[in-house]
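A protein record pairs a chain with a discrete description of its three-dimensional fold. The following entry can be read in just this way.
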Amino acid sequence: MNWIENVVRPKIRGLWPKRETPDNLWVKCPETGEMVFHKDLEANQFVFPGSGYHQRMDAPARLRSLMDGAEWETIPSATVPVDPLRFRDERRYTDRLKTAKAKTGRDDAFVVAAGEIEAVPVVVAVQDFDFMGGSLGMAAGEAIICGAEAAVARRRPYILFAASGGARMQEGILSLMQMPRTTVAVDQVKEAGLPYIVVLTNPTTGGVTASYAMLGDVHIAEPGALIGFAGPRVIEQTIREKLPEGFQRSEYLMEHGMVDMVVHRHQLRATLARICRLLMKLPEPAPLELLPPPSEDAPEAEPVAEEKDAAPAAA
């Protein structure tokens, strides 16, 4: 028996209990390896200050960065059957859903909200990649349709943030049917004379790109976002050729006419508000009138003495 290892060292360690450190205290940049404190990264809207790399944002963080006062009204969507095909691969589909719900605290990949962006009333739908890769299933399709119906009913622009790996294979043909259903919902928004604006984030691929993600009146992409139907590796294996540098990235797609503009996340809120005012023919906000700063050479105002009624002089 080793007395030092088994007796002395555990007693010494017990004097200074080990402090538990959160796993996400520091975040590493995928491009440069820069380590950034998580709170600082969150305050910078999850953009690494050194490289400008845009990390994924979950739905609540996205809405907080957009909505005035970080306040919004959540628009509920219709309920759908759970696991209609009773699908199972390595795990049951119901078990995968339970894990995703516990991880994100949401019922599915979409959050639809109504609020204001720089005093412009809007309806915003945010797709969360953390929920099963933002895959498009029946619940996601119903959320998009409910958001479109709310935009038409309230006469507001419809803004959709896309982030997905494609259709949800666990729902089979029922998932693929959401592509035409969401397309019809988008058409209803346009027929009502309301703008439909799509913000493409990293990644936007598969059936999402083949449906509602590419039907916007204006397409905005975040810098460096992967946007396409099939992934670049699948394309290279199919055509047996090397793809161009930056293929399927935001900047490449804008150069080839697939995206209208690439906007940094810090300018996204102002850009969306400006586009909505333009398409809805709303007046620009009145500029604040700033008073000129006081001159250093100007003399200070003398205090004004209070006037008192003089008592009548004695005769």
Remarks:
- The first strand starts at residue 26 and ends at 28.
- The mean pLDDT is 88.
- The first helix runs from residue 3 to 15.
